[in-house]
Amino acid sequence: MRIAAGLIFASAVSLCASGMAWAQTPAPKAAAAPQAAPAAAPAPAPAKAACANPNALGIARTVEIDTTGGPGFGFEHFKQLDFLRDHEVVLTFDDGPWPVNTPSVLKTLADECTTGIFFPIGKHSTYYPEILKEVLAAGHTVGSHTWSHATLTNKKLTEDQRKEEIEKGFSAVKWALGGTAPSPFFRFPALQHPPEMVTYLGTRNIAMFSCDLDSFDFKARNAQQVIDVTMKKLDKLGKGIILLHDFHKHTAEALPDLLHRLKAGGYKVVKMIAKAPVETLAQYDDEVLKDAKLPTVSSRPVSSVVQTISE
């Protein structure tokens, strides 16, 4: 849907040096019981390692986003902030973290010394916090993509339920990151933007991300189709925020060749970081601790659990 004209996003972009049909999946076995997360604090910037690949795609520049007022990015829905230069792209990945696929995406990005924005689902973050920690440790930007990937334009949802999807998603990501608050970057599932939630995110100083082009990787039959669809759209537009999914196998398989095509086509990657981390709400931090339903750890001594019966 298109956002009504007249919505004003107060934001500033300063330069620093240098959709989706989501497959419902059962919850995997969870890890150890969560501990109460410490107060939110911005993650320390990891030391930038020298790029070992002389032909890497790399990072052309980094932009810092002041999310005051909830600015919107991606011309599919938001037209005001046209900050990308010709042949610049932003790589974005939705619906992780997920075994095999997300680590594969991370390896490819590392091999090309480049970066992306990850929009993880809250539930997935509680399933695989160790993978999400790897995303952050690699220097990528981490936002949120709701708690359960609910389409927030669904009329069966109350306004409070819509807010809970947003807030609990951020709280779950924060828990998965060991108490480090993610960036105040949010993408609506299926790119469905209910106007009242656009307004709400503005009051929370959370930036909204649509896209300039959708790879439709969730519909792809194979990796080559992901590459062909993405490059055809990108060559037509000349620049843009690209929507991909680290949840999908074909995306992970396509990414090495896709990044090579970007490099060959003269495209450059822009890294987007937030001026300040999101401020999660205590109510939803507590709900994540209660509702993640992770098992408690037994306090029984080893001798009462494990006994040698033969050697």
Automatic annotation (TrEMBL):
GO BP terms, alphabetized: carbohydrate metabolic process
Xref: Pfam families: Polysacc_deac_1
First and last residue of the signal peptide: 1-23
GO cellular component: membrane
Residue intervals of the NodB homology domain: 87-270
Key words of the record: Hydrolase, Metal-binding, Signal
A GO molecular function held by the record: hydrolase activity, acting on carbon-nitrogen (but not peptide) bonds
Family affiliation: Belongs to the polysaccharide deacetylase family.
Protein task: Is involved in generating a small heat-stable compound (Nod), an acylated oligomer of N-acetylglucosamine, that stimulates mitosis in various plant protoplasts.
Name the record gives this protein: Chitooligosaccharide deacetylase
